[in-house]
Design brief:
six-stranded mixed sheet, 32% helix, alpha+beta, flat, five-stranded antiparallel sheet
Length: 543
């Protein structure tokens, strides 16, 4: 969480004269009470002085102004933030002139507020505070005119303000309220509980899902079991949310549940210790000493779970003969976990970089000195839904000639989002850097090109797909060269390249069969793994 200090705001008036404002200086606070300093157009302005909303607005404006990947002025953020209130009342309109913020309601100008001078340090605490005070004064004005806004819940008003601040940024920037943010945190980092999902509201809550290897699984709970009581409290008619809240708690504490098993009419009390439960993201199986690992997303346990599966596969008679890493449908997740997954298959050297105008967002990722698979042949499956950190994994393994990519052109999301906790326990997520593969190209908006494209007619066979890819090796090498030298902002060229192997969604067995076919023949695998080989510059240009 980013914490921004705030000085005490004196009860000083914001003068409507821009000239007088500039004489006062940027360090002066702003009056929020119309009785103390008003404009003749407005009478009786009310202004909420909620400390949480004040801190939230201050933090939001500062984060977007200083950390979004592309520069955006504070006055534009100010307009967007207040204009976000139109989601609550569509009579609200906000405009700006070089000198003034213009507040309109129901087609009429209801107030103008002079903007501050620009020749001061806008990154200072005082500078940040000035912009938030103007925003809060505008909020107060609109509360005076809008009954809908006055009667709105504080969280809804906060959501409108923050969502407004980022509404004109890229499509990956978003605001999540406290409940949504908690769900997302649990998905990334896990939660403290027993590891079940329930359906409630009608009769006794019923277990819908039991996480593998969770406390509930170890205690013998199964889908279909009814939860009759939790710590002695009868659960008849209780909602799934209420039930989940009772099951959650501090790590290491115990909860007693009365269970009516699905296959038994008896009610059995079960005592379960709460632990951190992390959603499963790795689903693995072994066929003929080939590990097939599907990764659905990247959370805090993904890399370690995949590593465990690799080590287990090596214990089979005959050892590990190859790995198929299935990233189809993987929309990304924690970037560091994607880096850690790529690191499992690489020895030394670069994995990728991030570049940004923000120093804190610039990173160089490098592999350690060991390949956990000991060089076992590697196939990576991608499709049109493979995105973000999943693409970085595939790009790193392709660029380093460590894997053959099979499938279709990937989604093309090479940007990184920073997740910022807010004072109301929501989160503000926005793009603050872009990723580059080891060879230096960014796959943002272009995606990744597979060495074996599985877009074909329904009568195609895995053998034919592999032989076709081998016969077209030179064309693929030429395509990869164009891919890596493309300016990602060139929309026309981007569309042309992506049309060669159009992105599509595919989760059937055909891609796996193609990968298994390729792994049967080591020379063919190496031939395609090194297609488009080029020298990788082990440097980082922080631009």
């Amino acid at each position: 969480m980013v914490t921004i200090g705030r000085p005490r705001i004196e009860d000083l008036c914001l003068k409507t004269s821009l000239r007088h404002w500039r004489r006062i200086g940027a360090t002066l606070g702003l009056c929020l009470l119309q009785a103390a300093c008003g404009t003749p157009q407005v009478a009786g302005i009310t202004a909420p002085d909620d400390p949480q909303t004040r801190e939230l607005v201050t933090q939001t404006i500062d984060l977007v102004a200083t950390r979004y990947i592309d520069p955006i002025s504070r006055d534009q953020i100010l307009v967007n933030t207040l204009d976000g209130l139109s989601e609550i009342d569509d009579n609200i309109r906000v405009d700006i002139t070089p000198d003034d913020l213009v507040l309109q309601y129901d087609g009429k100008t209801v107030q103008t507020i002079a903007l501050p001078q620009t020749n001061y340090d806008q990154t200072s605490v005082e500078g940040n505070q000035i912009w938030s005070e103007i925003t809060l004064r505008g909020l107060g004005t609109y509360r005076a005119y809008s009954p809908v806004l006055r009667n709105s819940d504080t969280l809804d008003v906060q959501a409108a303000l923050v969502s407004g601040a980022i509404r004109n940024l890229d499509r990956y920037s978003r605001y999540e309220g406290p409940k949504q943010a908690e769900t997302a945190r649990n998905r990334r980092d896990g939660y403290i509980g027993i590891g079940i999902r329930v359906i409630g509201g009608d009769g006794y809550p019923v277990v819908k899902l039991v996480h593998p290897e969770s406390p509930a699984a170890k205690a013998g709970l199964h889908p279909g079991d009814q939860i009759v009581a939790v710590n002695g409290e009868d659960m008849y008619g209780k909602t799934s949310t209420y039930t989940a809240d009772l099951l959650h708690g501090e790590e290491g504490t115990r909860v007693t549940i009365d269970i009516n098993k699905a296959d038994n009419r008896a009610i059995v009390p079960v005592e379960i210790m709460r632990e951190r439960v992390i959603d499963r993201t790795v689903f693995a199986e072994t066929r003929d000493n080939i590990l097939i690992a599907r990764i659905t997303s990247f959370n805090s346990a993904t890399a370690s779970t995949l590593g465990d599966n690799i080590l287990k596969a090596q214990l089979y008679d005959g050892g590990l003969k190859g790995v198929i890493l299935d990233l189809r449908g993987n929309r990304g997740g924690l970037l560091q976990q994607g880096v850690a997954v790529a690191d499992l298959f690489l020895e030394n050297g670069p994995i990728g970089n991030t570049f940004s105008r923000v120093m804190a967002a610039r990173h160089t990722f490098r592999a350690g000195n060991s390949d956990l698979t000991r060089g076992a042949p590697l196939i990576v499956l991608i499709d049109g839904r493979t995105a973000s950190s999943a693409e970085l994994v595939a790009a790193a393994l392709q660029d380093r000639n460590r894997a053959v990519l099979v499938g279709s052109t990937s989604f093309g999301k090479g940007s990184v989002q920073a997740i910022n906790d807010l004072p109301n326990h929501g989160t503000l997520t926005f793009t603050w850097s872009r990723m580059t593969a080891p060879s230096g190209y960014t796959f943002d908006r272009i995606g990744l090109f597979p060495a074996i494209c599985t877009q074909s007619n329904n009568n195609d066979t895995p053998v034919h797909r592999v032989s076709t890819a081998l016969s077209q090796r030179d064309q693929t090498a030429s395509m990869l060269t164009k891919w890596r030298t493309l300016d990602y902002r060139d929309e026309k060229s981007r569309r042309e390249l992506r049309s060669v192997c159009p992105a599509h969604s595919n989760n059937d067995e055909f891609d796996i069969k193609v990968a298994l076919e390729l792994l049967k023949n080591s020379p063919d695998y190496k031939n395609l793994a090194f297609v488009g080989q080029q020298e990788i510059a082990d440097t980082f240009d922080a631009h």
